[in-house]
Amino acid sequence: KQAEKAVHQKKEQSKTKCRKARRRHINLVAEFNRRQRKNIWLETHIWHAKRFHMIKKWGYCLADRPTEKSYRACYRAMTKHCLLQDLSYYCCLELKGRENELLKQLARICSPDTGLTFETEFCLSGRFQGSLDLYRADRYPADFLGPVTFIWKPGDVSENRQLWIWMHPALKQDILGELKAIFQCSEPEEVCIPKPCTTLIQEEKQTDIAVSLGKKRKKEDKEGEKDVPVKKIIGDGTRDPLQPYSWASPATGVVISDQTMEILRYRLIGPLSHSVLTETLKAAALQTV
Fold first, then answer.
1. Rounded distance, CA 6 to CA 11, Å?
2. d(CA 120, CA 116)
3. CA 245 to each of CA 33, 68, 205, 240: distance values in angstroms, whole numbers, following the listed order
4. Separation between Cα atoms, residue 238 and residue 35, nearest integer Å
5. What's any one GO cellular component for it (predicted)?
6. Residue 30 parent element (H or E)
7. 261-272: per-residue pLDDT in tens?
8. How far apart, in whole angstroms, are the C-alpha atoms of residue 10 and residue 129?
9. 56-107 confidence digits (pLDDT tens)
10. What are the structural domains of the chain?
């Protein structure tokens, strides 16, 4: 019986791709797209999955604790070098509209008694990030919503401004609902269905067909060239891909957009953080037309 079981397992393994085929770039990307259909992966997921214990929280797969039994490496990086954290799972809401209209309504959900506000001068210029506590409209100090961080788009000299607000995914629905209420944003009549959903299903079917036939798969686009799949982040852990991601207000002219997983965010901690940024980021040359 054991010999028969071993032969049966060997036949099953022979149907799957060998390691060399699985490690091809085109197959790695297809696998990346397929496996995040239930829980959204961050772009640094594969690096973390090899070194950390992963947990499923708020619709994401997140790194919880390192597989090493010692935390000295992280502590040493924080105190002497640089430690990077991927905070892309934090939700980002983008507000666009006239500056006076934005400040007028946002003043209803925060209070100067708690510290900074959206109209603090050095934050309003866009040079610094601010943090504050949000409340239900005109309900301070009751009905606390939660803490957020924000930054204005710098360099805007016109009336129209752009504001990004980051919050924990557990707070997103409450804060989004309050923002839509104070700016009188209406639900869009038509919901845009993103292309990655259909593309993922097509890729998965093509992969299954290729495996069943046991032949090498060469994908080609319409022009006959090799079509290499791209990593796709489908929606985010707090929103279904079929739900709307933008809301406009005919009354105030403000547009609220859900930019979660569209704007990535990383946190650098340690005395060499600034040195790492200056060595990594290079200013682009100005192009004049």
1. 9
2. 6
3. 21, 39, 28, 10
4. 18
5. nucleolar ribonuclease P complex
6. helix 25-35
7. 888 899 999 999
8. 58
9. 988 888 988 888 877 788 888 899 999 888 998 999 999 999 989 999 999 9
10. 20-68 (no CATH), 91-188+243-263 (3.30.70)
